[in-house]
Amino acid sequence: MAARLQPRQLAFALPHAESLTRDNFLEGPANAAGLALIDGWPEWPNRVMLLVGPEGCGKSHLAAIWAEQAGARSISAHALTAAAVPGALATGALVVEDIRSSDVDERALFHLMNLAREDEAFVLITAREPASSFEVELRDLRSRLRAVPAVTLLPPDDQLFRGLIVKFSADRQMAIDETVVSYLATRIERSYAAVRQTVELLDTEALRLGRPVTRALAAELLRNA
Asked: What is the model's pLDDT at position 16?
């Protein structure tokens, strides 16, 4: 008689809600300047501000906190069009998320910056790179962008790095203890994106294998990654 195969548990990619409230923001030296910018509104040095940092560093979280405070609307930079600008600025405050010179309508962005100045509106732009690295064809827009004050989020220190492991695990309702946190903190790349990817991998594989998230499981996964 053939041996009966054990059914393999499937891991479904269910959405995980990440809390983007002020109380849920992890503070540290790496993001202190960004948090000070948000808390300092409306006393900004300029009506348009740029928040710069690598993927996953908390730019969107800070932008969401500010949007709640300022009643701002939010739009992805690649979705910005000239026709959409007046409506986007209707509340007097706007978040433009993830601007990239290769994926933005330059005339729409220039129109937005001009209208914000005319209407005395506030605009918070997030980007992964500083404005000096943007390849912009419109000369007036290039000079305008480079004049925008920028606040940069830095790589996480040890305390923030460990806190991110705990937070991203909690966002996925994944139980994790100190032994796992300590193991991951010394073995994965010290970046926001690496923390998020590793926690996602642990959660997915733990569900697929029907195992708890332990140091042993983390070691197996990182060894085979």
From this structure: 54
pLDDT at 8: 37
How confident is the model over 16-32, as a mean pLDDT? Answer: 83
The Cα 107–Cα 102 span in angstroms is 13
- Position 2, amino acid: A
Residue from 164, 225, 224 nearest 199 by CA:
164
Question: pTM for the whole thing?
Answer: 0.83
Query: Could you give the C-alpha distances from 21 to 7, 43, 58, in angstroms and in order?
Result: 40, 21, 12
Query: Is the Cβ–Cβ distance between 12 and 209 less than 8 Å?
Result: no
- In angstroms, rounded to a whole number, what is the distance separating the alpha carbons of residues 44 and 95? 15
Which of the following CATH numbers is that of domain 29-152: 3.40.50.300, 3.90.1150.10, 3.20.20.70, 3.10.105.10? Answer: 3.40.50.300
Helix-helix angle 106-119:139-146, to 10 degrees: 60
Give the bridge partners for 96, in sequence order: 75, 125
Q: Are 50 and 149 in contact (CB under 8 A)?
A: yes
For residue 42, whether the previous peptide bond is cis, meaning omega lies within 30 degrees of 0, is yes
